[in-house]
Write a structure and sequence with these properties.
Shape of chain A: globular
Number of helices of chain B: 12
Largest interface: A-B, 100 and 89 residues
Helix content of chain A: 40-55%
Strand content of chain B: 5-15%
Number of domains of chain A: 1
Largest sheet of chain A: 3 strands, antiparallel
Order of helices and strands of chain B: HHEHHEHEEEEHEHEHEHHHH
Radius of gyration of chain A: 23 Å
CATH superfamily of chain A: Cytochrome-c3 Hydrogenase, chain B
CATH architecture of chain A: Orthogonal Bundle
Distance between the termini of chain B: 67 Å
CATH topology of the largest domain in chain B: Rossmann fold
Largest sheet of chain B: 5 strands, parallel
Oligomer: heterodimer
Number of domains of chain B: 2
Order of helices and strands of chain A: EEEHHHHHHEEHEEEEHEHHHEEEHHHH
Structural class of chain B: alpha/beta
Helix content of chain B: 25-40%
Chain lengths: 515, 309
Amino acid sequence: MKRVVIDPVTRIEGHLRVETQLEDGVVTDARCSGDMFRGIEKALIGYDARVAQQVTQRICGVCPYGHAEAAALALEQAMGLQPNENGQLLRNLIVGAYQLHDHLLHFYVLSALDFIDITAILNYRGNDAGLTTLRSWVKSELDSGKIFPAAPFLPRYEGAYAEDLELNISAIKGYLSALPIMADLHKMVAVFGAKAPHPVAIEAGGVTTLPTVDRLNQYKTWLNRAAHFIRNQYRNDLLGVAGAFPTYFNEGKGPGNFLSFPYFPDASGEQHALVGGATLGGKYQALDLSRITEDHAYSWYKDEPSSGIKPLQSTTLQPLNLAEYQREIARDGGKYSWSRAPRYGGEVMEVGPTARVINTYRSGTHADFNRQVDAVNRDLNIGLNEYDSVMGRHLSRLLCTLRILDRLETQVEQVQPDKSAFIERDMPKNARGFGITEATRGALGHWIETDEKGYIRNYELIVPTTWNMSPRDAAGKPGAVEQMLIGTQVADPAQPLELTRIVRSSDPCMACSVH
Amino acid sequence: MLEKITRREALKRIYGAIVATGAASFLSFEDLLAADATTDKRLNLIWLHGSSCSGCSCSFLDIEYVPVLDILSKFTNVIFHPDLSLATGDQVTGMLEHVMGSNLDFLLVVEGSIPVGMPHACLMGHKPFVEWAVPMAKRATACVAAGTCATFGGVTRMNGMQTGIQTLPELLVAQEIDKPLVCLPGCPMKPEHIVYTLLHYAMKGTLPPLDSQQRPLRFFGNTIHERCIYYADFQEKHYARHIGDSGCLINLGCQGVVTHNDCLINGHNNNTSSCIRAGHPCVGCASEHFPRQIMLHSHDDPRVNKRKF
């Protein structure tokens, strides 16, 4: 029995510790610890209901837009309000652009260099300005005798990286070219949302920005540039990595249950581009929010009961003090994470792009999408079952990116210039509402309850990475990523590259997870 | 020879960008050539995440005046950044421990606040973050508080928080660590603010001129209000009553009067927009009061005590 610990896991959002047990090089047990607690959800009590939008998006600087949208939706439901068409469209243009940004960030900055060999740049023979700069810099660093040459790109876990020079160079070029495209996508967020990260202009009632013709055309210019990059460079690099690592369609299999919320509606708030629902045991079923509960039997909180808690059931979430925490981590089978364990009818669910693809496909409601998935599957010689894997998650991100990109191109043309996108309402008193959407990383839900003056009486968030990175529940069932890790063969326990590839394939956002 | 000319041309373009950021006053083209020739002047940088959301890191990657690759390869030597480093696990803790035992000059960037009341509320390498932050700050040549959480506490210090955070300036005082410190509030911090600060430090060896709260005067010398597009409306007592009205947004909750930042001069995302240009009152994200109990309200909201102007 060998213990392998990865702490901290870098190139994710936030603070994550992964601890595994290996027998004959195979992971037999895994524990994922969310290592940062703030307690924003219950701290919101007493703040104005609109503050939830501004504060919950500060839970995460990578995917703030999802929280802004979910908080606005929850408050709109409490108000009994539906934004006008411009409000819905502008909100879509903000969150859609942000998702494209996030998917590029995840692929190039956070995860591609788990597969792509950055040192291949030394063999580059072309004359691209960025690549030659990178080559001479890496070379001079490696020749310098410095203690940490070529940081932050080295050191890394050594292992079986891609060998194809053309693929390596293309993806490295993609990394460098993605950064300005990502800045453009953030500008698309900012032109209607005011800024990125943390777009303030998404409010219950729509979006405060007036969609003037110049703003709309700025957006279109950036969208064109991003679309070209996504449909060519990103698509080729991602499919190139998928082609170079076919065995990763069999690695990192999760619980096999998938949960997603309806995402990206049309101008009237209906006809979502990706459907909500749950796939359990290979069967798709309609979404039933009443089946969602949370446990903290293995999380560092002391409230009782510690399992089966429904959203808004409790107004407190009491963290363990230092002595209690130390007792728990010293105890065999003790609590080990700040993240809680959400469950759907008691089941462990994977959320994220794969869940969006599988549920949309299995619902059979979007024939165009199914045709697209079938075509990709034929090219890669895979089936829907292979989406439950490291590479399946990356591939699902590409499919979701392309689908949202199509919708953005359509919807930007539907905005009526110079017409307000915002409807004002008083704060609802003694009201409840929920808002559900898909953040980049998966199904996101906010629940709000207001008091007699319109301040927050209670607030609840169940966030994508809370699902994926959950610790064990009261029944002892490991969380989704823990299940992905178990059964994995690790070639060199001192360089557990296989494990970080699995963890990063779920695109963890630990700040969101714990909130 | 040919390559040398190309290189010089490339540097000229970079220098054009530096002029655009306003950094030319302390960095001549000859300085840049010299810096390009010798990598020794590169600033060692270690970036750590405390109680944070990575928003300031994401914002940093949006810098457009100077390419990120040039920041990584020419002006700084990013020994560690949690979102960029390929190093992970023991490699990270090993690097940091090596640095703590060395005499390396480096600049420490702390994004987020530091929970000290509940030290186990932020952990790295199975140790409370504060146990990394203190020795690293003691070893650093200078410190940067990146963002509002690191500077004032921000959302990590809202009412009802139990983690007992300290900001980076508070931690330095409490631990009697006397180091040059620059604070770059903003939720998120603006990329231009940190890049200017890094360039200044790399090229001149000092931090830019600061105000009493260690913020660069260049960016934080004025309030949002003083540079507002609606300043004339304010003087004429022309106030917006609803979102979408023209006029000063102060009666809808605008925090521009108490918030120091340069958003109306240097808007967000390469001057694409600002909250006020987007029709939304300033929420005061760079101020010590953030987050307020009410941030956006109707002009006749009975819960709000109206200021009389």
